[in-house]
Design brief:
Layout: E1 3-7, E2 10-13, E3 18-25, E4 32-39, E5 46-51, E6 57-59, E7 67-72, E8 77-82, E9 91-99, E10 112-113, E11 117-122
Parallel strand pairs: 2-11
Antiparallel strand pairs: 1-3, 3-8, 4-5, 4-9, 5-6, 7-8, 9-10, 9-11
């Protein structure tokens, strides 16, 4: 079992930055793909970013050039640095984990999820 706890969300203005953190406990995350998804009310949960144990990153088109994902395996923590935030980035952001063998990091077949952290970007 892996427990995930997100932090770092908040209310910011368009153009501002936020850094989300995801702290994992229960097992080392070294062999897990770690992902970030986001969800607006009444909509599906969408892929934002993911990172393999090796450090290889994956970003949604909407995140490229603005967001950066990183991980510290020794501290079992994953980060999502979000710059140049836009009102359309407003959502609940979820951290997720799955074994590397579960395949494409973009696919929402993650095994473990955090409780989510709200990000609100005002115009």
């Amino acid at each position: 079992q892996v427990q995930l706890v997100e932090s770092g969300g908040g209310l910011v203005q368009a153009g501002d930055s936020l850094r989300l953190s995801c702290a994992a406990s229960g097992r080392t995350i070294s062999l897990y793909v770690m992902g970030w998804f986001r969800q607006e009310p009444g909509k599906e949960r969408d892929f934002v970013a993911a990172i393999r144990w090796s450090g290889s990153p994956y970003l949604a088109d909407s995140a490229k050039g603005r967001f950066t994902i990183s991980r510290d395996n020794a501290k079992s923590t994953v980060f999502l640095q979000m710059n140049s935030l836009r009102p359309e980035d407003t959502a609940v952001y979820y951290c997720a984990a799955k074994f590397e063998l579960r395949g494409d990091p973009h696919i929402n077949n993650y095994d473990y999820w955090g409780q989510g952290t709200q990000v609100t970007v005002s115009s």
